[in-house]
Amino acid sequence: MLKAISWRTLGTLDTFAISWFMTGKVWLASSIAALEIATKIVWYYLHERVWAVIPFGRRV
Fold first, then answer.
1. What is the pTM of this model?
2. What is the distance between the alpha carbons of residues 45 and 41, in angstroms, rounded to a whole number?
């Protein structure tokens, strides 16, 4: 669990840094990073649901 949290934190900090660099605005970078947290959770869940029904790479 700690590994997952640290990875998600690193990813969000990366998004924040890139957003701040590109926009020059801390408030906008913060908003983008916050939105990224929510969307990545949803995308991860959907990604796992799709892969759960794909038999590729499984032994039968």
1. 0.75
2. 6
